[in-house]
Amino acid sequence: MPVEQWSDTIILAELADDPQFSDDLAQVSEQCANNPRNDVLLSFVAINHLNSSSLAKLLKLRKLVTITNQRRLMLCNVNAHVWGVFLVTGLDRIFDVAEDVPSGLASLQM
Questions:
Q1: Are residues 71 and 39 in contact, defined by beta-carbon separation less than 8 angstroms?
Q2: Domain locations in the chain?
Q3: CA 63 to centroid of chain Cα atoms
Q4: Assigned superfamily of 3-109
Q5: pLDDT per position in the chain (110 positions), as tens?
Q6: Sheet strand arrangement including 73-76
């Protein structure tokens, strides 16, 4: 279940480490461009590291979802190492983060 339309207005993506990470984000971006009514929940359960290219793609998706489409983007299942990258780069202040998929879905449905 890499990327699925979880409901009429929510895309749920279980991301994989690179090189699949880029393909997964591209698929989510395409779905958001085709249907601007989608909120997005990205599960980082399988992500062990992020590089600058991955961060750039994540920021590009954030811009599409939150600024262009005026929808919400949420991350979940972020491990301590990846969370450290978010803290060091200051990205922890611009991304909404939930503990797990059920919590993230509940937040997006409220």
A1: yes
A2: 3-109
A3: 12
A4: STAS domain (3.30.750.24)
A5: 588 888 889 999 999 987 889 899 999 999 999 999 999 999 999 999 889 999 999 999 999 999 999 999 999 999 999 999 999 999 999 999 999 999 999 999 88
A6: 3-5, 10-14, 39-43, 73-76, 96-98
In eight-state DSSP terms, residue 88 is H
Instruction: Kindly give, in sequence order, each residue whose CB lies less than 8 Å from that of residue 3, ignoring residues fewer than 6 positions away.
Output: 11, 12, 13, 14, 24, 27, 28, 31
H/E stretch holding 61: helix 52-62
Q: Is the pTM of this model over 0.85?
A: yes
Distance CA 78, CA 82 (A): 6
Measured CA to CA, the distance from residue 78 to residue 84 in angstroms comes to 10
